[in-house]
Structure formats: C-alpha cells, structure tokens
C-alpha cells in the first residue's frame, strides 16, 4: 500500500469512530481524533449556534472556522461542501441558497454519509444530497458549482494540490470558494509531523501557509483573500506525548505557528486575462487574537 492511501485509511478509520461519538466527546479531543487532554479544548473556537440553518444533530464539533459565513452564497446557487461529515455546513449553505438552490456534500466515510442523509431526510431537504467519494477525485462533473466550501478537511488529504485542481475543475467560470483549514508557519518537530494519530488529528497533515496559497496561485485562482486567521495552541499535555519536557519548552518559545485560516478565491471567467497573482498580492481581511485550544 502506498503512503498516500495509508494516510487516507488512517483518516477514514478515525472519522468513522468520530461519527459514532457525540459532539461533547469530540469537543473534548483534538479534532475529535485523539485521547482528550485534561483541558477541554476544541480547534473550532467559532460558534455555529446562532448561524441560520444550523442543525445541532449535524454538528460533530470538527471544524476550524465558519466558511459558510464568508462564502457569499446567493439564492439559487449550487454549493458543494468538501468533507461534509454529518451535514452541518451543507444545511447552513442550504439556508442561504433557499429551496431553489442545490447543495452537494462529499465525504469518503460511509457512516458520515449515512448520518448526513438521515439528517437531510428528517429535515425534508430534497435539494441537499450527499455523495460518497474522495475530494481529490470528486464524483461531480466539470463547471458545476457556483460556490465550494470546506471546513478543516484539506489538511487531512495527502495530495492537497490535486484537491485544489479538482476545486478549479468543478467550479463554474466566475465561481468561488471559501475554505477553512489548518496551516503552518515554520517547521513542526518531526515527532509531531510523522505520528499517524496526530495526522488524523489535523496538525501533522497541515502544510506551510505560503505553500498552501501558492497552490491556489499556480492553479490560476484570482482575488485570493485570507478572510480570517487565528493561531492555534497545542496544550502541553498533548505536546508531551510527542516531545521531551525540554523540547516542549523549546517548541513553545519558538517561531513555529499553527493557524486556522479561511481563504477565499475565484475561478477566472471569460473576461480578458488578468495578471497572475503573487503571494504579496494576497490580502488578509481580518485576524483573530490567540485562541486557547488545539487542533
């Protein structure tokens, strides 16, 4: 088995377990995937409960932002949610598209698909569907979506560049995405980076922020914006699983940063060619104060 498939299988196994847990259990662990810290923390410091379309039964507490809040979804839009889980972001998106729109959730964990479909049926949402598949090979045709959203999922995929290529393929010309994800600034200690459990818990699967944004530039996306950014702190009792006490102190004093970011970008339409975006052109609309918690 190749390394990429092995990592996918690790994530699928973890998220199948998560699907069987309650939100409280998931919120007490790192992205719902690892043994809980003695502190209560969760990567998602953003509260969905006041968001239109929010369905508590569909919220497993696994996100790292509120991408639908920034996604500029309009009535009648077709929206695709990558890594749709139990359906939370799909139902929020459906609130924005209205009954005249369409929402498609894609997830590769069978039990998540089952939970999401059951939630949709219970709600009577005939314009929300859930498809089983990998987001680096989406079960969707070309130029289908007006908007793509995703919440803390790309960091779990080994081949992130392929996912970004798929996003570009599936978006309509002039379509756009808003995606919340985990990125790094600086280098993680190898003990964290290589551990499979930490990978399923989001941190080790993250790539450098500059590399992440460069993938979007290379794919030809325009008007790239960091809509929101906040630092994530890993509690010492989690770090101590991977690092010596001295290494924990050094890590906490270092320049390495783990961030939740929400990024927006547009697929070029039929307008004349625009100049290629550079990293220095990318704007940040707002950043957040440090948040307690972990990935």
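^ structure tokens above, recovered residues below v
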């Amino acid at each position: 088995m190749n390394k990429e498939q092995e990592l996918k299988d690790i994530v699928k196994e973890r998220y199948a377990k998560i699907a069987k847990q309650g939100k409280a259990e998931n919120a007490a662990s790192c992205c719902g995937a690892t043994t809980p810290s003695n502190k209560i923390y969760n990567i998602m410091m953003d509260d969905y409960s006041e968001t239109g379309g929010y369905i508590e039964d569909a919220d497993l507490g696994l996100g790292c932002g509120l991408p639908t809040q920034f996604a500029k979804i309009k009535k009648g839009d077709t929206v695709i949610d990558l890594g749709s889980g139990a359906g939370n972001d799909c139902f929020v998106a459906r609130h924005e598209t209205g009954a005249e729109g369409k929402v498609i959730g894609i997830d590769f964990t069978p039990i998540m698909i089952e939970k999401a479909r059951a939630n949709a049926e219970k709600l009577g949402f005939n314009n929300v569907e859930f498809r089983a598949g990998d987001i680096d090979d989406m079960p969707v045709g070309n130029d289908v979506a007006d908007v793509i959203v995703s919440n803390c999922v790309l960091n779990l995929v080994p081949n992130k560049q392929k996912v970004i290529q798929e996003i570009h393929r599936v978006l309509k010309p002039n379509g756009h995405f808003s995606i919340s994800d985990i990125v790094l600034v600086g280098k993680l200690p190898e003990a964290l980076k290589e551990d499979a459990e930490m990978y399923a818990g989001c941190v080790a699967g993250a790539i450098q922020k500059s590399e992440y944004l460069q993938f979007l530039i290379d794919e030809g996306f325009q008007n790239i914006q960091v809509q929101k950014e906040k630092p994530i702190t890993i509690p010492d009792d989690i770090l101590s699983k991977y690092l010596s006490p001295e290494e924990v102190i050094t890590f906490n004093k270092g320049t390495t940063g783990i961030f939740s970011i929400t990024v927006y970008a547009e697929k070029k339409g039929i307008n004349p060619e625009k100049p290629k975006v550079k990293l220095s052109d990318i704007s940040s609309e707002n950043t957040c104060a440090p948040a307690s918690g972990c990935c």
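The chain is about 30% helix and 20% strand.
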